[in-house]
Structure formats: structure tokens, C-alpha cells
Amino acid sequence: MHQQDDRPPDRAGPVAPRMAQRLEVHGTVQGVGFRPFVHRLATGLGLDGCVRNDDGRVVVEAAGPADALATLATRLRSDAPPHARVTAVHATGPPSPPPSPGSGFRVETSARRAAGGSRPEVREIPPDLATCPACLAELLDPRDRRFRYPFLTCTDCGPRATIIDGLPYDRERTTMRAFPMCADCAREYADPADRRFHAEPIACPHCGPRLTWWSTDVDPAAPAQAHGEDALDAAVTLIRAGGIAAVKGLGGYQLVCDAASGTAVARLRARKHRPAKPFAVMVADLDAARLLAQVDTAEAELLTGAARPVVLLDAGRRPGPALVSAPTLADEVTAGAPRLGVFLPTTPLHHLLLAEVGGPLVVTSGNRADEPIAIADADARRHLGPVADGFLGHDRAIRSRYDDSVARVVAGRATVIRRARGYAPCPLPLPHAASRPVLAVGGQLKHTFTLAAGPTAVVGPHTGDLASPPTLAAFERTLAQLSAVVGITPEVVAHDLHPDYLSTRHAERFAADRRIPVQHHHAHAASCAAEHGVTGRFIGVVYDGLGLGDDGTLWGGEVFVADLAAYRRVARFARAPLPGGAAAIRRPARMALGYLFGAEQLGDGDQDGDLGRWTGGPHLAAPLLDRLPAGEAAVIARMIHRRVNTPVASSAGRLFDAAAALLGLRDDITYEGEAALALEAAAGSHDGDGSHDGDVGGELPWRLAREGELLVYDPRPTLRALLDGLADRVDVGILAARFHTTITAVTVALCEDVSRRHGLRTVCLSGGVLHNQRLAAGVVGALADAGLEPLLNERVPAGDGGLSYGQAAVAAARMTGR
């Protein structure tokens, strides 16, 4: 801190010394109203100086009494705006020249690179923020000049990540540069007392973006048929009439229809080739959400937070008295799923649509199967033309794709299932700093990537399934854009072991000595450990569909002793063949046959657990076998016997599929996890949330066996008991509940064994099967009751959407030799 003597020469007596200081503020401090906050704070403290965005940080130069400067430095952290994340405040010496006495405090023009100080390793950018209460009040106020304006925003809300071209965060480096401010907006922008002081996306009906409307019966290259209110009216009229509108949201187009119209929803399913996967529903406010499902305190916080994710709610817990006024949802919305995805409006446009239509809306991603969501108007009209009946767009460009996020509450904690709009690209910490910049390319399904440098990881938005050239191109474009904005140029790449993943092929562009292969399930376990700051050894429990193991076989029901750098497999689920490989994933009935005819024989256990003997004469498996086409079972049996295209897997996900098929719930699926979801729904039809199963959910028989150094769960007695129950006419829902309880008991037994042998208590639970809310809540509760410390993924998905973050954590730990 530099001392100035500003005492006038003709004045006698002591004067408090005047000090000058330069402060660098690091973290997510741009695009969150930080400069206006600093201006108000410094002015209130009587300081002179300035604040500016400087590359990826904020620089404050101030002069005044020492106590005022100390207060400034403290309150930059303690009183920061709600969407800011201050990671460090560094004093870097006095400014030169120091601010003059009485010069006041001002917001200066941003700098791309400041003289003095060090450039932050990672430039942090904020996610998009849902419409704030103040802007919503203006939207609905006929006296306000932004009344019914779909693009109003302020320093507390609106688009951020989806419009940024680069940092420092200024209008000229966003897609809003195409809209010069009018005199009124410019006056608000320059007024320190205004809520829109230095709000870069500021706009109004006179100078900002406007709505456009196209129907699908015109040439995609033709001019818009309507603008502004007329465009909105056209969309509302279409939706009310049972049509499907493609609506341009914050991070891409969305497909929207009336959630009460079974015809409209069925038409959307047919056109989008989505016969069974549940749709999310957007409602006007929290009260409307509570008419559709019971909402607890944690769920209400998720629904109303600035991220505005789709929140999975238990539709079976609807409050009784409110049912009289509850809106009607078409059965086709959930297609029998146990939970309803609900979210509140994210933009002023969504608020207007909901108010005009007058009821819940189905709002789903604007894409067709195996394609990324559309963000450009021309692409949307070309690719979504066969799906939508009209297009409600606008002329503000979307720079980056951000689909809607999905979240839920488990054991009272919010957990993300799909991390995209509202969460990405918020940075996450790495327990071990990356010594070189890292790109982690993730897996194949539910794809994300992560960029990491030093102690910071930036997880990119959900891409979708990386299974087609368009999705690969979308990933590479998003990667290039985010890498440039956050300032990370990767020198090392972390990737999955599977050679056929498109993400692995992308990684092969790096030289061999710059590639770090990470086993699939170790990455899952590491994602949970890293986000909770676990640096030592832990028990890793990973239940998912499939991932390539280090022995060349397919894994998916795994227990490790691990740290972030290494792992040792200590327990697993028994193996079973996948008849036809990927065909068994799409057809759970085949997976059931795999267990019937080829379940792994373990030790000298009870041969009543051998399911293969039930294939002749009267047998317990008749309900399944009788449903199958003639000859299918015999063909599968021969394939397994001859080991033709029947890779084996120790997969928890495939075991859930087999159980669903044996119980007659799903023989075929149309989306990943459908059979397991049906099993969870059946179980939930009999009791609460799975934490207290009682007699209904009592355990089925199960067995653990030693195979060398591994403890192995033998599911044959469990599956036999399901068939026994069916033969005894036990309700399918009761059997499904007992299956969940059994897997919980098996998990606890495996973890207790590992804990005794290795002296570990922390259990990191991950993998897509843990998206089963009943199972996750049951396992967490049972492990805690056993005296262990269970951890679940919260800020990154337990499924493959969290793989890239886990890969980055492993790569960083290995590079530092931890």
C-alpha cells in the first residue's frame, strides 16, 4: 500500500495519511455485476479511483484512508454479488500514478492485458441466468417501457455464456454488439444508480433483438412472416391449436407444445422419434409446480434458483387438496415414468408464452435423434422442419449450445444429472493442480469435455451422445470456442480406454506421450471424490451400463480401493454374456436370456442358482420365454454356448435390465435406462422413497463368492427369487422393491468387507445406475447406518456426463505424481 501526503501546505495539524492500492480480483467476476458493485462500494467508502475488467479478472485502483481501503479489500469477498465467485484478491502494489484526491470513482474501459500483475491461468465466465424478479415485474408492468419485451435483462440476469465471444466481458465481445444502444439504454448503462449500470446485454424494444415467426409451409430462406408481438401471437395460436412450435431459447431451439393435449404430445413423440422417454414440463411458477407434484424445500430452491434446471419430482406425491385445481397433463408426457421433470421459465419469452397459453408446456430439446440442438435459425428451419409446425425465433445470435440442465434432490442434497445451461461453464476445483493444461474428452454417451489448468477445471456443456458426425462437429466447435474464451490451450489429453469412442479418436490427434488413458470406472469414482475434495484413498463404488476394463472385458458393477491417481479392483458383480453385443443393450429380454443361459458360475455355491437348467419342460422362466418369438431363446442359447458375439460384462446396469425383463416390465427399450426406470417405477408404486422398505421391500436371496482376490456378487439366487415370486403370484411392484433393497444390501456388504480389510470409511458412489433415485437414497442411508461415509456426485453427473471431470482429476493427480 502506497502512502501519499496530501496535506495542504497552509493547513496546520495532523491529517490522516492517504494510501493508494491496486487490487486484482480473480474468479467468476465478469458478467455478474461486479464492476457496478465495486463502484457502489468504493463510492460509499469515499475512495477515489477506478475499476475495470482486465482480461479475465477485475482490477481495482483506489486511494483514500487506510481503513477504507482495508474495508474495500475485505468486502470485495464478503459482499460480492450473488452470482460472483471470488477465488482471490491480490494486492499488487500502488497504482501509478495514484488516483488524485477528489477525483471520484469510475468504471474504466476494459483492457485485454494489463501492465503489471499476472494473467489469471483460467478466465472464468458465468453461466446464463434466469429472469430476475425485478425484470419480471417490468415485463408485466404496462407502465414500463420494457412491458412485454422478450429480451429485457439486467446485471443480475440474462444471457452470458451463450453470447460471449471473448473476455474481458463487454458488449463488443458478445453477440449483442449487433444492437447499438438507444439513448435511453445508454443513459441507464452509464447511470451508477441504475440496475442496468454496465449491464452488457441491455436492450429495449427500440434498439434490441426482436422476435420473428416462420411457418413451415414457406421456403426456409424466405423472410420472416411476422415480427414482435405478431410473431408471439402466431406461436401462441399454434400451440393452443395443438401444434408444435420451435422456440429459440437461450442456448438453442426448443420444441414446445401444450402439455395438456395428448394429441399434440403424441405427435411430438412421433415426429421426434421419441416413443417413450419422458418429456419435461415448464410451468409459470412454484405454485403451479406444486399442483403437479409435491415439492420439498430443497426442490423449491432448485426450481427457483438462477440456474433453473429441469427438476425431477415425484409425481406420485401430489398434494391431495390441490388436485381440484391441478392442471391436466396428458398421459403421453411422462409415459409411465416415476418422476416428472418440471422447470420454471428461464427467459422473459418463456414467461410470456406460459401466460398467453394459460397452462403447462412441454419444452424439450430442439433436435432430432443423434443430432445436436439447433442454434442457428436457418439450421433450425432445415433440420426441425419435419418436426415443428412453426418457428418462433429472434435475431440475437447464439454463440454456444447450452441445453437445459436436469437435477434432482437425493437425501436432501441437490444433484445434477445433466450439466448445461445455468451451471456450465462454472469452474470446479481440482484437488491436485494440473501442472500442464489438460483436455479431458469424456466418453461416448451423455458427452461432456473438461478443460483444466492449475487448480481449476471448466466442464463444458452437455453435448449429447457422441455417436454421429454432427454431434462430433458440435463438440469440436464448442471446445474451440470455450478454449479460446477461458484461455486454456491443452497440452495433454485424458481419454477413455475404449478405442472406438469418437472422443478417444479425437484424443489420438495428440502425440502418444501427451495422452493419458483413464479407465472408465476410475474416472467415475474420481469425479465423485474430486468434487468433494477427497485426496487420499477411498472405496469407489461404480454402477453403470458398460465401460472397458483394464483386462479387456466390459465392466459395470465395480468396487475399487482407489485414490485420484490409481485404483485396485477389489469386488465386482458376476459376469453375464450380452447376446449380440449392443443388441442386448437395446433388448433387455436378451440380457435376461444371457443370465438364464450363461450367468457366471461362482465357486461351489448352491446350484439352484444355476438359471440355465430352467430352459426345458415346465420352468419358472416360462413367462419370459413364452413372450419371445419362436426360436429366439434357442438361438441365444446356442450363441452363448458357442461364444459367438456374446461379450461378457460385470454390469449392474445390465442386471437391472435383466430383472425388468424377467418381471415383464420391458423386453425392448427406446432410450438408455428405460428398463431400469420401469423397474424403479414399479417399486415406487408400493411404498415411499425407498429409504424404509419394511416387509414390502424386504431382501431377496443373494450371495457373495471369492474369485481369487475379488469378492463377487452372485445374482443368480436373486433372479431365481424374482421368478419364484412371479410363480407365487407376488405383485411385480413388490418384487421390484425387493430387488432394489437387495442391491442396497449387497452394496453395503461389499463396502463393509473392503472397509474391514483396508481400513477405509469414505465411499464414493458414482455411475449412471446411481441416477436411480430409489437406489441412491437407499444406499446412502444404509451405508451411513453401517458407520461409513457415503458421498454422491452433486455438482457433476454420476453418469457419463461426469466422466470428463473425473478424467481431468486423474490426469492432474498423475502429472503431479500423487
3D structure, described in words:
Helix 15 packs across helix 17. The strands form 4 sheets. Strands 8-7-15-9-10-14-11-13-12-16-17 form an 11-stranded mixed β-sheet, with helices on both faces. Strands 22, 23, 24, 25, 26, 27, 28, 29 and 30 form a 9-stranded mixed β-sheet that branches. Strands 1, 2, 3, 4, 5 and 6 form a 6-stranded mixed β-sheet that branches. The protein has 818 residues and is an alpha/beta fold. It has 23 helices and 30 strands. Strand 16 (406-410) and strand 17 form a beta hairpin. The protein is 31% helix and 22% strand.
The biggest sheet, with number of strands, parallel, antiparallel or mixed sense and barrel status, is: 11 strands, mixed
Shape: globular
If you average the pLDDT, what whole number results?
Answer: 92
Give helix % range.
25-40%
Q: How many DSSP helices?
A: 23
Approximate strand percentage:
15-25%
Structural class: alpha/beta
Gyration radius, to the nearest Å?
A: 29 Å
Strand order of the largest sheet: 8-7-15-9-10-14-11-13-12-16-17
